[in-house]
Amino acid sequence: NYVRILQLNPATHINADIHCSIEAAPVTTAEHDALSYSWGMKSDGDASLSRSTSINEKSARVTRNLFKGLRRIRGRRDPARFWIDAVCI
């Protein structure tokens, strides 16, 4: 009864590299927000338009929409926790 949660590390500049980690947390106590990668036009989320990010200190490809979303929603000081279907399933 666990769910995988992505922790998005903070950055002081919107164009800074994205660094994340994934952890398993109990479903009943895992505090997080949900984020879907599949908004926008189909071509915007196309895997061929993917970007590189760091998850658990390893390079990972995510869609352009998700990459842009992560850059916009991350905090400047505190990490943020998300369940993201494209990453956590």
From TrEMBL:
Matching InterPro entries:
HET, HetReg/Transcr_Mod
Enumerate the spans annotated as Heterokaryon incompatibility domain.
33-89
Its domain of life reads Eukaryota
The protein here is known as Heterokaryon incompatibility domain-containing protein
Say which species the protein is native to: Dothistroma septosporum (strain NZE10 / CBS 128990) (Red band needle blight fungus)
What lineage does the source organism belong to? Eukaryota, Fungi, Dikarya, Ascomycota, Pezizomycotina
